[in-house]
């Protein structure tokens, strides 16, 4: 059987019919085999045709199966033969293909050839189908005058339905969210589309700024007839790149499909505008040795104006793909799409709020929208508005909906308590003593009281669920009525439009408003309103920032900051105060929001608590002593080592891995970054830190901007440490002055001026060592408690340990060795 004259889909159908015949041990391929293959693989399309002529789709399949079962089976045969009726049906299909003006035989022609033939299945269909004579007319009408030009074109009339999405139809159905703002960009788009040639705008902007939304906004305007006459009644189709590429197995098949789409659009004579999202994907698509890529198919049509096309791509991809092809770039007119500011973003969220309320079945407060905009702008720095704010609202609403569908925590706790008491009651029933009987009576009363409370809460919870569903149903109905109102206005049905405007919609809006007011005033177990707290919880999960910080509820904690830090950092009152004041300034919003929360240079001899204060600060702010990135600057003494912080340049080993510093901040932006022994780093590394301290950001090797606005930068330095071990007659002020001389001689003034504070740590005294011993002993006690060992150390022993481990030059570092050798070694055998 020659299959070269068939479309790809028709080929697949004929091959499947052959395989079906082999599987059933049939020596002959009949019209029944082909008919079943057509119906099973194209259900939606042919079911509609069959039902239009008065038959039932499933009845046709049943009758086909009956014929197949009745056919004789021949086991062990090798060759397949074509039934005479099928040969005649194929000739009929060729005739219908010529009549339609098709270059290849498609499924429609094959279907008509079988149904209007003389086979057994044909006779059954003719007897069953009341309007069989209209079948050819129905197929012709369905095709809408389109012709099959290539083998990849499966359906004569639906090439655009296969590979594009009609945005104007989606807009008329109310499936597109309202577009708030962006009037200037839409006007610029309309202006370019109105040109005679090169009428092809291309949206260029960061991911998530609303490029696709502007195309949808244009579709909404076309539907509302809010466009110039040149765009009235036009169709805006979005090219579906996934469908275009899917299943294109053979060389040139993808290009054939794209060419068929372009030819269908050109035949519309300007009635169709094509929108290509991620237009850069066409550059290089389908390209192989000796052939051109898909973008070259677009160029002639784009240049002569026969194809009006809107493209969308990001700045990076436009530079990487489009700008390199000057011939393609000059055919598009750039329309720059910038991220909206916070006020514009808030307006966008208010405009689409109703859609999200209907979808999730919850209410969204205006304070939640405001929080979503502010928090996403402040804490989610690697994405762009309005996308990140919309995602916050969407996820918070989804989380609340999930909570509404499950039992409240209060009710679950009550039920667990009742169950525990019931278990205890059953055990006490077996006892006869007075105390057990008294306890049993008490339990019975408790269970009764708790059950009443549980039943009451359960009823309230179920009532709340019903109310939420009713409110959600009303909101959904309101959306439908609003869509109907738009359609009535377009169709000129003024009576229905007036009824909806002045009666139906206002009444429903009043009911919704009253229901929301009742729910706000009532004390609910599970609130069904998305609040600022819900948004903060989502941001906390995304960024790792504590919820208390987001909600500003850590004020009282900040006031006690010195006291809490001093519990871990001993003998450093002034450094603790300096750090606490700087952190409070940052938390109060009195510092530059773009710079790091705080930046410090810690000076002093070794072992006095510089690293310990960093860990204590991390524990205070993030409830985790290890929530910090420590970078040992002794590893960055070479000039080339700067690449380890931000990532290797393209072409070098390690480019894909990213930098140690930038990747740590990208993954967890809210943390303490400790640069240990910063004086050992190469000058180029220090120059890199200048940008972090001043601008609060770094650009990594991949060109990504990494923000340090939510980080605390701490640099430790041992310069001038020898000043602390000089004779004791030196006063603290003189020591500080001498240390600062060393620091100023080593670091550049612009580096020191960018720091929030330079903190000088004191040398530890023997009293400080004794306090540190108490802390270490209490830590050791906790470890021993797990082994049921109680440790008691006398004051005399503490004094002995302090004297034997005190060293002004090394601070508290010898203390660890003294405790290990004199206490832990004795505990090994316990």
UniProtKB/TrEMBL annotation:
One of its GO terms (cellular component) is cytoplasm. Keywords: ATP-binding, Chaperone, Coiled coil, Nucleotide-binding, Repeat. The keyword Glycosyltransferase does not apply. One of its GO terms (molecular function) is ATP binding. SMART domains: AAA (SM00382), ClpB_D2-small (SM01086). GO terms for biological process: cellular response to heat. It holds the Pfam family AAA_lid_9. Residues 3-145 form the Clp R domain. Residues 411-525 form a coiled coil. It comes from the Bacteria. Belongs to the ClpA/ClpB family. Part of a stress-induced multi-chaperone system, it is involved in the recovery of the cell from heat-induced damage, in cooperation with DnaK, DnaJ and GrpE. Acts before DnaK, in the processing of protein aggregates. Protein binding stimulates the ATPase activity; ATP hydrolysis unfolds the denatured protein aggregates, which probably helps expose new hydrophobic binding sites on the surface of ClpB-bound aggregates, contributing to the solubilization and refolding of denatured protein aggregates by DnaK. Homohexamer. The oligomerization is ATP-dependent. This is Chaperone protein ClpB. It comes from uncultured Rhodobacterales bacterium HF0010_10C01.
């Amino acid at each position: 059987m020659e299959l070269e004259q068939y479309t790809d889909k028709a080929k697949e159908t004929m091959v499947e019919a052959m395989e079906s015949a082999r599987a059933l041990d049939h020596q002959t391929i009949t019209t029944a085999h082909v008919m079943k293959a057509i119906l099973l693989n194209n259900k939606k399309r042919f079911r509609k045709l069959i039902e239009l002529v008065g038959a039932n789709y499933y009845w046709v399949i049943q009758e086909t199966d009956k014929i197949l079962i009745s056919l004789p089976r021949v086991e062990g045969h090798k060759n397949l033969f074509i039934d005479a009726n099928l040969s005649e049906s194929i000739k009929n299909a060729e005739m219908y293909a010529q009549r339609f003006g098709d270059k290849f035989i498609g499924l429609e022609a094959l279907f008509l050839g079988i149904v209007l033939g003389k086979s057994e299945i044909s006779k059954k269909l003719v007897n069953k189908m009341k309007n069989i004579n209209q079948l050819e007319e129905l197929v012709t009408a369905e095709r809408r005058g389109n012709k099959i030009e290539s083998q990849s074109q499966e359906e004569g009339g639906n090439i655009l339905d296969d590979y594009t999405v009609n945005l104007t139809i989606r807009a008329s159905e109310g499936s597109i969210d309202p577009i708030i703002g962006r009037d200037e960009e839409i006007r610029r788009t309309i202006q370019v589309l109105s040109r005679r040639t090169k009428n092809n705008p291309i949206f260029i902007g960061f991911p998530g700024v609303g490029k696709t939304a502007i195309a949808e906004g244009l579709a909404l305007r076309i539907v509302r007839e809010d466009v110039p006459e040149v765009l009235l009644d036009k169709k805006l189709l979005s090219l579906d790149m996934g469908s275009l590429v899917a299943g294109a197995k053979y060389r040139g098949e993808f290009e054939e499909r794209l060419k068929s789409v372009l030819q269908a659009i050109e035949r519309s004579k300007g009635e169709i505008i094509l929108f290509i999202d991620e237009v850069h994907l066409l550059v290089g698509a389908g390209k192989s040795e000796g052939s051109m890529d898909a973008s070259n198919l677009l160029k002639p049509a784009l240049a002569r104006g026969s194809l009006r096309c809107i493209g969308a791509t990001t700045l990076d991809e436009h530079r990487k793909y489009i700008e390199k092809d000057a011939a393609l770039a000059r055919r598009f007119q750039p329309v720059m799409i910038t991220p909206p500011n916070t006020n514009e973003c808030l307006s966008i969220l208010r405009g689409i709020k109703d859609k999200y309320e209907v979808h999730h079945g919850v209410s969204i407060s205006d304070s939640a929208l405001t929080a979503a905009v502010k928090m996403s702008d402040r804490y989610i720095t690697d994405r762009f508005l309005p996308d990140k704010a919309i995602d916050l609202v969407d996820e918070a609403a989804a989380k609340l909906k999930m909570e509404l569908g499950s039992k409240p925590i209060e009710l679950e706790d009550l039920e667990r308590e009742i169950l525990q008491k019931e278990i205890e009651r059953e055990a006490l029933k077996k006892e006869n003593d007075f105390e057990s009987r008294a306890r049993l009576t008490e339990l019975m009363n408790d269970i009764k009281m708790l059950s009443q409370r549980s039943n009451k809460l359960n009823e309230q919870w179920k009532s709340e669920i019903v109310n939420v569903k009713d409110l959600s149903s009303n909101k959904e109905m309101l959306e439908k009525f609003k869509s109907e109102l738009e359609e009535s206005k377009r169709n000129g049905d003024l009576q229905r439009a007036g009824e909806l405007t002045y009666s139906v919609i206002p009444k429903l809006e009043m009911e919704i408003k009253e229901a929301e007011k009742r729910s706000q005033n009532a004390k609910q177990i599970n609130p069904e309103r998305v609040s600022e707290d819900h948004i903060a919880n989502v941001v906390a999960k995304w960024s790792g920032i504590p919820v208390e910080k987001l909600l500003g509820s850590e004020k009282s904690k900040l006031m006690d900051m010195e006291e809490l830090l001093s519990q871990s950092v001993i003998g450093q009152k002034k450094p603790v105060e300096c750090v606490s004041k700087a952190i409070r300034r940052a938390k109060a919003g009195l510092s530059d929001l773009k710079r790091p929360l705080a930046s410090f240079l810690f000076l002093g001899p070794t072992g006095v608590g510089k690293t310990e204060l960093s860990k204590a600060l991390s524990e205070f702010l993030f409830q985790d002593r290890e929530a910090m990135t420590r970078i040992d600057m002794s590893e960055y003494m070479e000039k080339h080592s700067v690449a380890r912080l931000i990532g290797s340049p393209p072409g070098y080993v390690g480019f894909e891995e990213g930098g140690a510093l930038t990747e740590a901040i990208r993954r967890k932006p809210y943390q303490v970054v400790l640069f240990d022994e910063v004086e050992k780093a190469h000058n180029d590394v220090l120059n890199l830190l200048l940008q972090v301290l001043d601008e609060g950001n770094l650009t990594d090797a991949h060109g990504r901007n990494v923000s340090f606005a939510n980080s605390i930068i701490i640099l430790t330095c041992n310069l001038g440490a020898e000043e602390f071990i000089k004779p004791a007659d030196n006063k603290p002020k003189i020591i500080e002055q001498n240390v600062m001389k060393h620091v100023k001689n080593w670091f550049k003034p612009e580096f020191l001026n960018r720091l929030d504070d330079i903190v000088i740590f004191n040398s530890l005294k023997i009293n400080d060592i004794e306090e540190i011993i108490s802390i270490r002993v209490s830590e050791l006690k906790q470890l021993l408690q797990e082994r049921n060992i109680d440790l008691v150390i006398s004051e005399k022993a503490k004094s002995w340990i302090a004297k034997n481990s005190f060293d002004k030059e090394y601070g508290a570092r010898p203390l660890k060795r003294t405790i290990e050798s004199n206490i832990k070694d004795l505990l090994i055998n316990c």
